[in-house]
């Protein structure tokens, strides 16, 4: 088996088709730092030559900024789906002949370091115009395990999407939590994603910590192991203020360093798992 | 008599919706108004912001169609400054909601 850390051409992800891929969903309370962390982790992976696709199912913007992609609100074009025959559960299905892999190559934007970005589109007033795009997105994600991409998903704040199956692609759910009561309460609710058969592994990221024992506090309050801890970081605030990726603005900031360590850990977990 | 105000608060995650809502609710209540604070988030934290530390244990969600008159009296949680909190929804586990 090829090591997951071995550089792979982003142009030909199949080249390394045998290695295991990361399938991570980021969840958590609003403002905890999901998009910042998801985007930065994806960029770090991509900078190492790995093929990465980011999934943005948030109807509000965020992830594209932390990746450094100037994107529009537009979702996946209507052509990606066709009406399902009568009697099928879903109203639309992927267009005949279109696989998840082909759809990602065709419809995902390309950002710095070759990172790819797929969104179902941003809400502008009424949500109905995005219906076909949402079906396309969900169909692509449903079969994403058959593709050679590392998958980093950024879900909207709260529990609704995660508990309705939008994190179903993930083998690992990372709950981002601040050491604040409401943020940890949300994280504790989200920890239930790890219950039941075929549930993903769930771990926490303690973000915006101020004290040495904040990571322990997050672990105790949520019942989750903390896999990474990032302190309150002025560089992150600056980057967000400017609307630029953290990894470009402050590549050596404590947050980026914490995520480098996390990535190393993820690669080690991959290697040690059967 | 003054008509009751109906205020909705929205915004991006982490900007302070719940904090503003709780502050407004308490401020109005302290000025003698009767206030019902409704948390429409499926990941509700407004009760926590209003000082209901035990709301996770005490909360009961009203069944759909519960008449308005019963909502406040039977399902409201008493919070700081006599604000009544109603939880509209809570997604708890896979497939719920």
Protein architecture, described:
The complex is a heterodimer of chains A (274) and B (97). Chain A has 274 residues and is an alpha/beta fold. Chain A contains 10 helices and 10 strands. In chain A, the strands form 2 sheets. Chain A has an 8-stranded mixed β-sheet, with helices on both faces. In chain A, strands 3-4 form a two-stranded antiparallel sheet. In chain A, helix 1 packs across helix 10 (254-272) and helix 3 packs across helix 4 (131-142). Chain A starts with 22 loop residues before the first strand and ends with a helix. In chain B, a hairpin with a 5-residue loop joins strand 2 and strand 3. Chain B has 4 helices and 3 strands; from the N terminus they run H-E-H-H-H-E-E. Chain B has a domain at 34-97. The termini of chain B are far apart. Chain B is globular. Chain B is an alpha+beta fold. In chain B, 31% of the residues lie in helices and 10% in strands. At the A-B interface, helix 5 and helix 6 of A face loops of B.
Helix/strand-derived category of chain B reads alpha+beta
Q: Judging from the principal axes of the Cα atoms, what is the shape of chain A?
A: globular
Biggest sheet character of chain A: 8 strands, mixed
The CATH class name of chain A reads Alpha Beta
**Could you tell me the strand content of chain B as a percent range?**
5-15%
Task: Write a concise keyword list for the protein shown above.
heterodimer, A: 274 residues, alpha/beta, Rossmann fold, 8-stranded mixed β-sheet, 10 helices, 10 strands, 35% helix, B: 97 residues, alpha+beta, 3-stranded mixed β-sheet, 31% helix
